[in-house]
């Protein structure tokens, strides 16, 4: 499957988010943004045309996520389209225009559910002891305790009485794919803000003078920026590789979980280096509320811990390496690269 996206579409996406950010402060204007994106066919970008979607694919959706993250705009784009509505379509359940997110229950509750308090309906996932079930319920029919992540986005606690739900059974592999999709979404978003942080750091180093010359002329600053660029590039390459394999195999590759783990591990560790170095490059001004750096460093640190912490994905890689053994490790790390 081609990953090429029309340049005019990418530019249009960027323009929408840039205009929104000029009009609203972070965390405001979601309803207005959602209405505009809906009119442009971007809210359900990957939904089938038969169900009211735009019929696009993951390459377009990834560009939409990158554009939003690049401009510091938060919205449940992935949670609605790539996760909740995809799950409904997969379960052959109806989809309407309501804003959605997904809630995966553990003993009737879930913590840190993205955008639950801003959703109109929740796609509930639970295991009844025999199989996973999926149901689509109004948000006001469940208990939601509002919370937020370090970037100020809704991350809520949800409690549901599943005894009152019937649900539609779905195979285990559907939920496995849901988890991989969710994990890859966050890797894409982290990479986007790391790239934006790199741009900001380069611009600041060139424009800011110290002792009569630009910061970019100091070797220590050059080293900091070089490390930012290297870490961001590594995270982006790993994430692009995982997405390419997902699209090539229609999410069926036996190597996909390993590649997603690589992407999440690289992105997670890169976020630590990039955020630390960027704040050193920007100095005191980078810690102020007026400077936009925090609009990208906070999401980087928050998103890397969602849908699996950095430690979780590092442990996954350790498990893969241990299972492969000394003789199988090279084949594990090169199998996908040989196909690309």
TrEMBL record:
<dbReference type="Pfam" id="PF00441">
    <property type="entry name" value="Acyl-CoA_dh_1"/>
</dbReference>
<keyword id="KW-0285">Flavoprotein</keyword>
<keyword id="KW-0560">Oxidoreductase</keyword>
<feature type="domain" description="Acyl-CoA dehydrogenase/oxidase C-terminal">
    <location>
        <begin position="185"/>
        <end position="302"/>
    </location>
</feature>
<dbReference type="InterPro" id="IPR037069">
    <property type="entry name" value="AcylCoA_DH/ox_N_sf"/>
</dbReference>
<protein>
    <submittedName>
        <fullName>Acyl-CoA dehydrogenase</fullName>
    </submittedName>
</protein>
<dbReference type="InterPro" id="IPR009100">
    <property type="entry name" value="AcylCoA_DH/oxidase_NM_dom_sf"/>
</dbReference>
<dbReference type="GO" id="GO:0050660">
    <property type="term" value="F:flavin adenine dinucleotide binding"/>
</dbReference>
<dbReference type="GO" id="GO:0003995">
    <property type="term" value="F:acyl-CoA dehydrogenase activity"/>
</dbReference>
<keyword id="KW-0274">FAD</keyword>
<dbReference type="InterPro" id="IPR036250">
    <property type="entry name" value="AcylCo_DH-like_C"/>
</dbReference>
<comment type="similarity">
    <text>Belongs to the acyl-CoA dehydrogenase family.</text>
</comment>
<dbReference type="InterPro" id="IPR009075">
    <property type="entry name" value="AcylCo_DH/oxidase_C"/>
</dbReference>
